[in-house]
Recover the amino acids of this structure.
């Protein structure tokens, strides 16, 4: 055969979620990325998170821009809505979609090129607006689709595959997010699904903009010695600061508490994110503490991971703008379009 | 926990569930691949190396391989392994010149083989080409043992049996028909280099109830089948009761229909889940409108004026415990079922009336000869037992394996070597990668259901006693069924130093059988830490060495792996590879060669 597909095989006693679906029901088309690409692991973690949260696939929306990472929306949740948008313009499309129907679950998948170069302005403003979506930034430090040029997230001194060093300072999406007031800021690694799957679940349940910067190595162009985004480098300097577990509202939350060790953050849906400190004196609910922990880690060349900041109190775009909660497609036409007379009346008010 | 030692041939052998379950360890996936390539003759010869009688066993094997088949982990029905064996036999073409040859000269060592059944013929098959002068003694007038006398011709045509026995006789084996051996002591005095007893379990169990000896219409199943096979019995009454519900009972009831019976009932003492007959034999009998009556315990034969008119049964009721075992039983009443003939098919036993008590062969308290389970030697050096004669009734494929093992012993005995110094199994790993997305086997999963064997229509099959019921697979059926085999012998082989823990294999695996996790003290602890931890008897976790980047270990659950090779296809560093694990299982002819095989 000239290519291969992952067959759909139903095992006996295969685990099902609350909807009676199996994990494979959250798969998508076969990935055409390079074998060993970190993005495929992130895709698998996203599929698992949706499966574990028992989200109906057709009630989810996948949006992406352009790049290797942006291709991955095709590789999970085959029954979900999706929009593969213009390069760097995914946040605008997502913002529009969330405005039109806030009842769906939104996940944006982007990369370091799509988000930090061509789409930097869009990315920052979506965070400022606190659009209710999870934004997964698959970060590998190179433009893989165009054969391995440095991206804006490449570290100073990091070497390209042919040996040329990067001489420009990087944009760190996590520091950037903290500085513009993002309400859910996390970093993960494609190679650590024990950490990543709970982060994605928590991010999907966060009311507001959730950013997960995922170190996701490019096996073809940035997995060599001298790269700071290789599997080897990431495993070596990987530092877990805090572990987050999302506990759904139906589960008995109280018994899980162990104050001091576990910090509970109550979510809008009644669930709880349990933060498990792996480091003394670090409280992710405190933005300044997160920034300082991040600065310290950078000084030590450590890759600080986990749910680094969470703020459930800040209103999301809908609340800020006093927008309609009902999806537009559920509002009767007469109410949506009250007619010329009403429009005239409205316009009069602005004169 | 120590990494898995895949150099032990048993490790990968166990993964090939069918081959491991087969007493003769037939390399099933390997011969199915040959069938898939249209190489029927080679598939036949590969079969023959281990099971000697592919044509016979392709029809009537007990098929321990099929319940073990890995396919049943994801579907209800196993691969039709037995039927594919028959395909290899049906289409084998001219293979005679590739069979073991009669040696140019013999080595002068004379071996006596008692009983012309599958065990003796296997011993002859293994020893005659090495130069031994084998003589088979048979009391009946035709060879084959129970394969001829007990298995009806509508299941196993005479021609198929004669052809495969003929291959062995052509190796220079002498067959003495109508020559019962009547004295072990006399035989011992005849100066044979070795004696092999393969006389089967010829004594059908009796049912000593009231009226048993007052009529000629009560028959012992295996004796009656033999009498039919040799055309001494040509008819039976209109209403027939079969007592017992094993495979012999199935042969008795179906034979009765062909001898003129109208209604045949198989009477079972217990409920269906306790039946000894193979599921497919029950199905074939019921297809012929045999009624199987459960929960009836025989009490007496009913005679009127010296003629058998019926049989009295107690109706039973059973209570089962949680594990399905009978906890209590009680009699709820009595019923008489009319009949003209009764056939008793309630088991059989060994019997050695011709072995004198002082011949030197020791028997245990159940009158079973004391046989070494590895060498098959009795308490007299140079006298060996095999097949049903050794440990009681089993089946043909066990008899074949006993024959192989006894042949090794006889070869060693005749050379004056230790019987226990047998060549161990060996493992050879052969690459299967041909290129991008290309393997030397069909690795894509085919979700087709098991093909159903076509049968001769009911009216036609009763016209003669020897109309073979099963028609064999069509070309289309063969093409589909071979693709159902998962190729479990194409092993997943992992090279830990190459792994960079990208998780690509874990993500691509369609059955989620892979994990990377911190190592643990025991396999139990490791299983607990995995998301998928279904346990199948005997299937292990494949645990790697510590991985270079994190020191964690790669773990594969051998239970659920479907050998699709996607992990190896997806691996960027070729840490996963698919390699054919060829298990070399040695027979008598290999014993003099020093091992030239290299391990993995």
């Amino acid at each position: 055969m000239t290519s291969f597909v992952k067959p759909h095989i139903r095992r006996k006693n295969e685990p099902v979620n609350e909807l009676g679906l199996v994990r494979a029901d959250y798969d998508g088309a076969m990935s055409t990325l390079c074998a060993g690409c970190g993005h495929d692991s992130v895709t698998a973690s996203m599929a698992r998170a949706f499966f574990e949260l028992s989200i109906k696939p057709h009630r989810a929306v996948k949006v992406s821009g352009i790049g290797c990472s942006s291709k991955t929306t095709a590789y999970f949740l085959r029954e979900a809505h999706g929009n593969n948008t213009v390069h760097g313009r995914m946040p605008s499309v997502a913002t529009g979609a969330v405005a039109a129907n806030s009842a769906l679950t939104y996940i944006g998948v982007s990369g370091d090129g799509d988000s930090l170069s061509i789409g930097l302005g869009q990315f920052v403003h979506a965070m400022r607006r606190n659009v209710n979506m999870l934004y997964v930034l698959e970060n590998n430090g190179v433009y893989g689709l165009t054969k391995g040029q440095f991206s804006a997230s490449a570290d100073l001194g990091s070497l390209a595959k042919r040996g040329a060093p990067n001489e420009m300072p990087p944009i760190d999406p996590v520091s950037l997010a903290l500085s513009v007031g993002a309400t859910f800021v996390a970093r993960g690694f494609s190679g650590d699904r024990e950490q990543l799957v709970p982060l994605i679940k928590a991010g999907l349940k966060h009311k507001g903009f959730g950013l997960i910067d995922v170190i996701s190595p490019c096996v073809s162009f940035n997995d060599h010695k001298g790269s700071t985004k290789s599997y080897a480098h990431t495993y070596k300097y990987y530092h877990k600061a805090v572990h987050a577990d999302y506990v759904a509202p139906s589960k008995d939350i109280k018994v899980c508490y162990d104050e001091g060790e576990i910090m509970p953050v109550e979510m809008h849906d009644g669930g709880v994110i349990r933060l498990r400190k792996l480091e003394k004196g670090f409280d992710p609910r405190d933005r300044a503490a997160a920034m300082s922990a991040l600065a310290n880690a950078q000084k030590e060349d450590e890759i600080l991971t986990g749910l680094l900041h969470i703020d459930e109190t800040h209103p999301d775009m809908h609340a800020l703008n006093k927008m309609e909660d009902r999806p537009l497609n559920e509002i009767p036409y007469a109410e949506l379009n009250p007619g010329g007379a009403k429009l005239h009346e409205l316009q009069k008010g602005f004169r | 926990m120590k990494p898995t030692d895949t150099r032990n041939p048993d490790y990968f052998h166990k993964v090939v569930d069918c081959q491991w379950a087969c007493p003769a360890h037939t390399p099933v996936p390997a011969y199915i691949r040959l069938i898939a390539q249209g190489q029927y003759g080679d598939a036949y010869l590969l079969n023959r190396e281990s099971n000697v009688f592919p044509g016979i066993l392709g029809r009537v094997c007990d098929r321990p391989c099929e319940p073990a088949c890995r396919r049943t982990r994801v579907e209800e029905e196993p691969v039709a392994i037995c039927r594919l064996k028959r395909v290899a036999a049906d289409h084998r073409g001219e293979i005679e010149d590739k069979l073991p040859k009669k040696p140019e000269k013999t080595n002068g060592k004379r071996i006596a083989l008692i009983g012309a059944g599958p065990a003796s013929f296997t011993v002859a098959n293994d020893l005659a080409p090495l130069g031994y002068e084998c003589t088979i003694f048979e009391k009946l007038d035709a060879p084959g043992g129970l394969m001829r006398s007990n298995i009806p011709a509508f299941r196993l045509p005479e021609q198929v049996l004669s052809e495969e026995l003929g291959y062995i006789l052509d190796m220079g084996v002498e067959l003495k028909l109508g020559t019962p051996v009547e004295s072990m002591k006399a035989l011992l005095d005849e100066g044979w280099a070795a004696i092999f007893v393969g006389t089967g379990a010829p004594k059908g169990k009796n049912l000593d109830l009231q009226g048993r000896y007052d009529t000629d219409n009560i028959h012992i199943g295996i004796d009656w089948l033999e009498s039919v096979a040799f055309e001494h019995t040509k008819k039976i009454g209109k209403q027939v009761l079969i007592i017992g519900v094993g495979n012999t009972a199935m042969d008795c009831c179906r034979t009765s229909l062909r001898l003129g019976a109208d209604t045949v009932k198989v009477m079972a003492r217990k409920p269906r889940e306790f039946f000894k007959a193979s599921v497919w034999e029950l199905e074939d009998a019921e297809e012929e409108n045999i009624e199987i009556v459960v929960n009836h315990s025989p009490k007496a034969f009913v005679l009127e004026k010296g003629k058998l008119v019926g049989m009295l049964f107690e109706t039973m009721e059973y209570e089962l415990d949680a594990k399905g075992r009978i906890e209590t039983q009680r009699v709820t009443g009595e019923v008489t079922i009319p009949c003209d003939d009764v056939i008793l098919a309630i088991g059989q036993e060994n019997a050695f009336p011709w072995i004198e008590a002082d011949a030197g062969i020791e028997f245990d308290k159940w009158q079973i000869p004391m046989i070494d389970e590895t060498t098959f030697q009795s308490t007299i050096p140079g006298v060996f037992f095999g097949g049903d004669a050794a440990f009681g009734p089993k089946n043909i494929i066990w008899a074949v394996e006993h024959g192989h093992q006894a042949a090794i012993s006889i070869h060693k005995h005749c050379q004056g070597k230790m019987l226990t110094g047998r060549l161990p199994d060996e493992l050879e790993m052969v690459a299967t990668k041909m290129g991008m997305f290309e393997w030397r086997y069909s690795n894509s999963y085919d979700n087709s259901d098991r093909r159903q064997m076509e049968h001769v229509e009911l009216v036609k099959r009763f016209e003669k006693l020897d109309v073979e019921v099963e028609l064999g697979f069509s070309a289309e059926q063969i093409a589909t069924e071979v693709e159902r085999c998962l190729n479990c012998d194409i092993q997943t082989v992992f090279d830990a130093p190459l792994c960079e823990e990208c998780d690509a294999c874990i993500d691509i695996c369609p059955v989620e059988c892979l994990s990377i996790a911190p190592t643990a003290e025991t396999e139990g602890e490791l299983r607990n830490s995995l998301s998928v931890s279904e346990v199948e008897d005997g299937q292990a976790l494949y645990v790697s060495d510590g991985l270079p980047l994190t020191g964690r270990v790669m773990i594969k659950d051998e239970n659920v792996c479907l050998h699709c090779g996607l992990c190896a296809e997806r691996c960027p560093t070729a840490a996963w590879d698919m390699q054919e694990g060829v298990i070399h299982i040695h027979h008598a002819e290999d014993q003099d060669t020093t091992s030239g095989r290299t391990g993995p």
